[in-house]
Amino acid sequence: MTAATRRQIPQFGHRLTLTGLALPALILMVAVNAYPLFFAIIQSVHGGSLIAPGPFVGLENFAEVLTGQSFWRATWFTLVFTACGVFGSWALGFALALQLKPNFPGRDAFKVLLLLPWIVPIVVTAMSWNWLLAARDSVLPNIARALGMGNVMFLGNPTLAMVTVCVFKVWISYPFMMMMCAAALESVESNLYEASAIDGAGKWQQFRHIILPVTARSTYISWILMAVFCVNDFPTIYLLTRGGPLEATTSLIVLAYRTTFLDFLPGIGLAIAFLMTAVMITLSVVLLRQIQKSSLQ
Fold first, then answer.
1. What mean pLDDT comes out for the span 82-87?
2. Best CA proximity match to 264, nearest among 53, 49, 96
3. In terms of Cα–Cα distance, which of 287, 229, 221, 242 is closest to 81?
4. Helix (H, G, I), strand (E, B), or coil: what is residue 56?
5. Any idea where the domains of the chain sit in the sequence?
């Protein structure tokens, strides 16, 4: 037995021990998630109810979803909602992270205050926003009338409801982006700023050629996470508008919920969910490739 072989045996035993310790948890995770996933796949190709699978219909549920106007309307709003949630919260979070430098007075106190929209439970935040703008006599509609803008129904008008829901998503999501950006900015060495300043680079040049490239990997990761959060975000929309008015704020996850649990069509609802999952996987793969490219640079 060679020396190299003797070194490999302890390493193999160490890996085997770690695998044995992790195996029960892995088996439990597979057991908990495998059955619901398998049952969902079965339901998506059947035309039954929440209790019984019903007759086999193949891909008819997917065809019905793809040919329905509700699906494409929900897809459009989901894209708008996700884009606003990802880039809006990133822009705001990045701007705040840039301002909260180590020499910023009261930095820790401001960080705690800025984290409140993310820390407070979504139900409390949604109720607060409903109190501010949901009814005709709420605070913001009263201010709008006082300014001569008439009766502005923020959640009663389809366009205003879409804008309100997107702004609400940015409001509750920017603290997460701010923390991600702040952590990424910590990796930017101070001597890079000093060297660029000596070369005559201004704030914009430093932001464009130093900060953005160095934080690109963290940015792409935060975009992936926030995109997943937005697409799967049910309470933000449902607590504010329940998908209305006139289905203007009905996202794919809300449409899947309505179809499955209110219309009692689980096959079609699960088909919507699986199509939504396929889109998310595609988007994640694209962004992961961008992460790999940024790592090679």
1. 94
2. 49
3. 229
4. strand
5. 55-296
